[in-house]
Amino acid sequence: FRLNALYADASGEVFDPTGYGVSDAAEGRIVFVGEAQTRIREDYLRILRFFRFYAWYGRGEPHEEALVACAVLAEGMTRLSAERVSKEMLKLLAAPDPRRAVAAMREAGVLAQVLPEVADLATFEAMVERSPQSEMRLMALLPPDQEVVKRVAVRLRLSNAVRDRLTAAARAWALVDLKMTDQAARAAIYRQGRPGFKDAVVRRWAEAADGAVEARRLLALADGWAVPRLPVGGRELA
User: Of 95, 178, 190, 191, which is the most buried if we count CB atoms within 10 A?
Assistant: First the structure.
């Protein structure tokens, strides 16, 4: 992109070989160097990088030529390794507010290439306000079905930690209700684990039009309750 073609020498003098990098950076424009389709055909990962840069640095509407090129060549991403795709996607979702970028990805048909499981963006858009974590935002793009989550984790070759977190949240989601009693919440925490329970609560909060008070109650309970341990172990039994 023209804005990341900028470089500087040891004295700090900035060089702008395209003549547009400084102005693009100042105005939040993400524009390919030269012809957009040519740049993408050199490396189809640049489609995701376009949306990542737009999520982090873009302002206004996405550059039209770049958006059209991404849409036309979206199927080329099937040639990319899963690790490169998932790494780029998680970086994109970690942006302060990736909602415009993800919506543009969906409109261009790029999101369907990466995550065909996405049904709608409503939960994701709410999750952006609930959590800055890319894993939580990825979770909100997927249905709360642990089998689906496992398939996505395998396809994208997500790390074991991310896979286990998303799976635990999907499993706990079915047992979590924002209006559940403290007793029911403690039972769910005991059976599903504290991290999975908390992630499921935040997802339920993102799905609810108004659940802030109840969600905060459950999250505080999860943080403050000491999960009991059975005082009898194998040694006593023997």
Answer: 95
In terms of Cα–Cα distance, which of 56, 47, 13, 236 is closest to 22?
Answer: 13
pLDDT tens across 148-161, in order? 999 999 999 999 99
Closest by CA to 152, choosing from 201, 89, 97, is 89
Spell out the long-range contacts of 82-86 with Cβ–Cβ below 8 A and sequence spacing 24 or more. Answer: 82/155, 82/156, 82/157, 83/157, 84/45, 85/45, 85/48, 85/114, 85/156, 86/156, 86/157, 86/158
pTM over 0.70: yes
For 12-70, the pLDDT digits (tens) are: 999 999 999 999 999 999 999 999 999 999 999 999 999 999 999 999 999 999 999 99
Backbone angles phi, psi at 179, to 5 degrees: -100, 10
| 8 A C-beta contact, residue 57 and residue 30 | yes
Confidence of residue 209 (pLDDT cuts 50, 70, 90): confident
Provide the 8-state DSSP code for 95. Answer: S
> Does residue 28 come out as left (phi exceeding 0), alpha (psi in the -120 to 50 range) or beta?
left
- Cβ pair 111, 118 in contact under 8 A: yes
Cα distance from N-terminal residue to C-terminal residue, the chain: 68
List C-alpha distances in Å: 207 to 94, 125, 128, 139, 185.
20, 10, 12, 12, 18
Quickly state the pLDDT bin for 183 (edges 50, 70, 90). Answer: very high
